[in-house]
Amino acid sequence: GAGVSQSPRYKVAKRGQDVALRCDPISGHVSLFWYQQALGQGPEFLTYFQNEAQLDKSGLPSDRFFAERPEGSVSTLKIQRTQQEDSAVYLCASSEGQRFYEQYFGPGTRLTVT
Amino acid sequence: DQQVKQNSPSLSVQEGRISILNCDYTNSMFDYFLWYKKYPAEGPTFLISISSIKDKNEDGRFTVFLNKSAKHLSLHIVPSQPGDSAVYFCAANAPRQGGSEKLVFGKGTKLTVNP
Questions:
Q1: What is the DSSP string of B36-59?
Q2: Interchain pair B89, A43: CB under 8 A
Q3: Which domain holds residue A21?
């Protein structure tokens, strides 16, 4: 079956621009996660949805970061007024209800802010 | 502070031999541990997990061992194959109140299996 997909795969933004990153989770997966991975580091948790409810946004680095999942499937991570330190790979993952800890990742969006 | 540590940035082994990747953690509340494999330009791929109440889980060539008293886990790959060359991430599940869950990752170990 289809895995987690993300678009765009690569995004170059000028500092100060807004960007929107999309995630299509595996069909039927209730949990959706966003992670940020800097070069040479492991993924770091940003936010978590269960269906359409955002249960944890403790990892969002600032109020410039906003995520939504209005219908409980597709999710969008929006970054406003991008800064150079936002350059990273943004990973989306989903998991089914019973085995929530086994998360399945998309290929990521590599964001470069110039 | 880093709650999940992979102290070896890289490991090189010969094809057919055993690969052992190590991971240490500090948070005794972690309830599941997972290993992910990552190829360049791809997302991490789930490999194997272990519950904190177990000490071993095996799946084909991959075995994960958990030593709770030492807060240490390891991934054994036997026999190693060139296709196993990738970055391996250790991750731990941190249960939180209110039903939120998140994975805490180490920095990864780059495994190279030489033919």
A1: EEE-TTS--EEEEEEETT-SEEEE
A2: yes
A3: 5-107
pLDDT of B97: 59
Contact A55 B45 (CB under 8 A): no
Contacts of A39 (CB under 8 A, 6+ apart): A88
Go through chain B and tell me how many residues it has: 115
Return the domain boundaries, chain B. Answer: 4-114
**Given pLDDT bands bounded at 50, 70 and 90, which one contains residue A10?**
very high
Q: Convert the pLDDT of each residue in B17-50 to its tens digit.
A: 999 999 999 999 898 999 999 999 899 999 999 9
| CB contacts, 8 Å: A103 with chain B | 46, 103
Superfamily of domain covering B4-114: Immunoglobulins (2.60.40.10)
Q: In chain A, which residues have their Cβ closer than 8 Å to the Cβ of B36?
A: 105
